[in-house]
Amino acid sequence: MSVLKNNYYRMKSKKYYLMISIAMTMISIFSAVYFHAKLEVKGSIAVVTTNKDTVFQSDYFTFTTLDKELPRYQLMLGKYDGEIIEKGDGEFEIVTIKNHDVRKILEEIVKKPYGYTPPLPDARGIGTNILGFLILFILLQCVLFMFMLAEDMERKQIERMAVAPISFFSYVLSHFIFTFALVFIPAFSILAVMKGFGFAMGFSLWQYALLLALLCMLGIAFSMFLISLVKVSDTANMIGSSIVTLTTILSGSFYSFEKGNKMLEKIIWVLPQKDYLSFVQGLESGKAVSAMLPQLSYCLVILLVFFTFSVIKIKNDYVLRKD
């Protein structure tokens, strides 16, 4: 309780952290709802050709004719879902950073420019979109709010805690619980308010509570793991933010990056954010939880590994050492 009270007074003196947290959460949720509404209407395909007779039609895509190939960043930003490049003699090249199913659909559209209009098989629902946008912001908040544990290490306050009557596990768990509350409560409250105003949210509130709790715990466990290695607040924040941003983007939080690069696919395969998104998308599409146990289990195992390592490492550094 003393640790929770101490953290409360420290956070009270830095109210702007909490304001940033709420602002980031609101922006991510409203962005997810907005972009989902936009993407539900039609996908967008760029057609690079100088032949005016080259025409594609689809109920699921809008086609924009261009004179030159797109810069790759426009695909990454989601302005276009793909690019069809005419090479001459009836040959076309397809470029997309989305998954293999989208590529196959574009290949069929090239074969049947007027008659093939399939739905996207892996189109995300609104719930997956919201949590996909939230992943980056939630994980960044977890890294940000764990500064209190790092400060305890920098100021040697953790050494006084180590000889206090409170158990070391209770001390670490108090940091975990306090950070969880700071991240979870604002995010869930905003989701509940939007649900109350009748926004289409994809999941029920209790489902959001469980999925959001899993994401918060995963982020906090990673943050503790990083701090147990670095021990300096600013350095841990900088490294953690960089790792979270890069891995979350690669995992497909905003767009899928599966495009045939075997090395990249292997890297993406081990990212817990990827399994978390797969679990969320499967749940929203109606699959049974038992069918997605591998993805859920992987997230839980990573969570436990990070947390257990952190507790053991910090305890060895500050409790069991004999210097």
Automatic annotation (TrEMBL):
GO terms for molecular function: ABC-type transporter activity. Its main location: membrane. The keyword Chaperone does not apply. GO terms for cellular component: membrane. It is a multi-pass membrane protein. Coiled coil: none annotated. The chain crosses the membrane at residues 16-37, 130-150, 162-185, 205-227, 239-257, 295-312. Residues 108-311 form the ABC-2 type transporter transmembrane domain. InterPro entries: ABC2_TM (IPR013525). This is Permease. It comes from Siminovitchia terrae (Bacillus terrae).
